[in-house]
Amino acid sequence: MQLATWNVNSLKVRLPQVLTWLAENPVDALCLQETKLEDVNFPQHEIEEAGYRVAFAGQKTYNGVAILSKHEIHDIQVNLPNLDDPQKRLIAATINDVRVVCAYFPNGQSLDSDKYQYKLRWLEALQSWIKAQLATYHSLALLGDYNIAPEDRDVHDPKAWAGQVLVSPPERAAFEQLLGMGMKDAFRAFEQPDKAFTWWDYRMNGFKRNLGLRIDHILLSNSLAERCLQCVIDVAPRRNERPSDHTPVIVTLSDSAR
DNA sequence: ATGGCCAACACAGTTGGA
User: Fold this and answer.
1) Residue A72 is part of which domain span?
2) Which of A97, A102, A124, A178 is the most buried (most CB within 10 A)?
3) Which candidate in A52, A104, A116, A137 is catalytic?
4) pLDDT per position as a tens digit, A91-138
5) In the structure, how far is the CA atom of residue A206 from the C1' atom of nucleotide B1, in angstroms?
6) Is A246 annotated as a binding residue?
7) Residue with smallest Cα–C1' gap to B9
8) Whole-angstrom Cα distance, residue A211 to residue A201?
9) Which nucleotide does the CA of A119 lie closest to, via C1'?
10) Are strands A2-7 and A29-33 parallel, antiparallel or unpaired?
């Protein structure tokens, strides 16, 4: 079974790229972030014609998340139940034997911004909710754009980024606390090349110069981590014309024992 | 030189992203 996550930065613009990518990478489930579409405008039929079922929760202009799946999607939940928040940043569903959580973490903008305080509140709500979910769901995967670079090796220039949003100690502590609940960073479960990133600024030829960050992640509950065979970043879509600034991350799991 | 790019909204220039 393969699961993937991709912040597409507008599904309206990126739908052709998503369909092309799925044809070349027929993963079992793909989590999308920043769809930036109201539900009435979601391209459900185009995706279904490509052989994928879909669950989505969107809004105008900002945010928006979706799960595309080759298999039946059960028990869909939208947003964190313990946070009063109109922003559509989370959708969860059960696919086969796996609880799939697709999340678009807040950016935070800057450390002195109200948006940073919102990010910290959101992270706290996520933590307590995930902790409870792990008690319920044996096999859980938390995929998405975390907007957190967990370690300095996930940052192209740690000195330049020091003291900024995405690398601040409270954000990194939140990431560590998710690991402490019994989750594994699938990417770091394997030997990986240096300077492996999932996002590059559109400006300054960021991608060509590999000035990036690793901020898109797949965390697996312990029992799922035991089934994890591989985790890779697919940089190919970042070379497309009109690319998203993020690129997909894919995890491969062995079939569960039956 | 602390911006450069991109998308949405709206139809110019602002906001947000990371």
Assistant:
1) 2-253
2) A102
3) A104
4) 999 999 999 999 999 999 999 999 999 999 999 999 999 999 999 999
5) 18
6) yes
7) A61
8) 7
9) B18
10) parallel
